[in-house]
Specification:
Largest sheet: 2 strands, antiparallel
Distance between the termini: 45 Å
Helix content: 55-70%
Number of strands: 2
Strand order of the largest sheet: 1-2
Structural class: mainly alpha
Strand content: 5-15%
């Protein structure tokens, strides 16, 4: 729960985040037919991405999501700046807000992403989504996290065997 450590992490990783860059392409001029939009030959690659960050908190999917959200926010600021949609400050912080309704859209989208991944791995919504959605922890969020944690415990200990069997079958080496 030491959110200030995320700012330190961004500062540590900032050089690599900038060096890895991001992928950017532009649709060839004069093409506005929707079918042509889906053909990669109709795009001009403006910038390639040179690397990715793999984040994995050893015991917590939810902390991993929070870190990835902070990294994606940092990169999105640079993308929007390159498109001349926003001006970024010289010292871009880990929680730098987007202008207007874009901030709410980003938070909502990232929270939905957290919930979908969490359902796939744990059978419950993500923890700490009150922070992801609003930028602060709430009593209701802590209560929801407690309920989801107990549910995860039950699933992991009493009903998860079927899912592990499916994974075992899917990864069986023939």
């Amino acid at each position: 729960m030491k959110w200030e450590n995320l700012s330190k992490l961004v500062d540590i990783c900032k050089e690599e985040l900038n060096n890895y860059g991001y992928f950017m392409a532009q649709l060839n001029h004069g093409l506005n037919d929707r079918e042509r939009f889906y053909d990669p030959r109709n795009f001009i690659v403006l910038q390639s991405q040179k690397g990715t960050f793999r984040t994995n908190c050893m015991d917590c999917l939810d902390r991993t999501n929070v870190v990835q959200g902070v990294f994606s926010r940092y990169v999105a600021h640079h993308q929007l700046n390159k498109l001349d949609l926003i001006d970024i400050a010289d010292k871009l912080g880990a929680f730098e807000k987007f202008p207007g309704p874009l901030e709410e859209s980003f938070r909502h989208g990232w929270t939905n992403n957290a919930d979908v991944l969490s359902y796939l791995y744990t059978g419950t919504p993500a923890l700490k989504t009150d922070f992801t959605r609003t930028g602060k922890r709430t009593h209701q969020g802590a209560l929801n996290d407690g309920i989801n944690a107990v549910t995860r415990y039950y699933i992991n200990n009493f009903t998860d065997g079927y899912y592990h069997d499916c994974l075992d079958i899917a990864t069986l080496k023939l």
